[in-house]
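Lecture notes, unit on protein representations.

Consider one protein chain, 312 amino acids long.
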Amino acid sequence: MHHLKSSTLIVIACAMLVVSIAAQQPTPQQQGRGGRGRGGEQGAPAGMPATPPAVPGAPAKPYVPLAASTLADHADAYYGELVTVTGAVEQTFSKLAFSIDQDKTKSTGKDVIVIAPTLMEPVTPNAYVTIIGEVVHLDPLEIGKKGAELTKEYKLDVTPEVVAKYQGHPVILAKSVITVAGVDVAKRPPPPPTAEEEALSKIMKQVGPANTALRGALDKSDMAVAKENANVLKQAFVQTEAFWKPKGKPEATKFAEEARKLSEQISTAIATGNWDEAKTHAGTLGQQCAGCHGAFRERMDDGTYRIKTSSR
């Protein structure tokens, strides 16, 4: 947890610096809301991040920093927007649903419901949190559909009385729930890698550099370097094929087998000085790698990747 906390604080600090610089220039978002700028948001409490940390693969659409009261007052302007909202925890409705208000000292009636796909620890009443996510309507169908799009499980797990009370209020589907300690409690720490995963990771870390070196050698018609790296790739894919065979993943095994054969064909083409053929096979090899990664590489909540196996 200490490691996650430190990493999160570093990311938040970097994000705050970037946004501080960007804030000196007017943005289309600021100009498009009738002069309200970012909705007249108030500053975040001391120690809280004003903007979201960088998320790998995040869309180009910007996050809008808001106060909870601004979102509650002008919900129609922000449905479908990606936002970062700082507020105090007002009420807890269930394990994964709670509301935030701008003022921790009293209830303003302008609290906003937050739904998280997971929480590693409960949020603390009256404590400030920063929520990063998307604004949607208080509608179970919309929430479920949006969750499917985000490949996260969001549920409106609240009582009918709460639904009636907050009818017409916005809901934030949280990607992150960051505490004043800088810990994102909505992110699951990845499970420790198994010995097999460590072994495969070691093999895969040879593939990238070898493939890059091979491409460069082919462009220069450097036979010695090209042969050396084609052989590295061949051995790596032999080991990868052996890894997948007992896993009951025939498609993954096939990817590795085809990659091995392509490496052998590259070696043969290099030996005969057929550089164009070698380059063609190298291009196909890259496609094989991309296909395997797309099907059998899994992104963890912390942004790192693991190999998909039958255990997950």
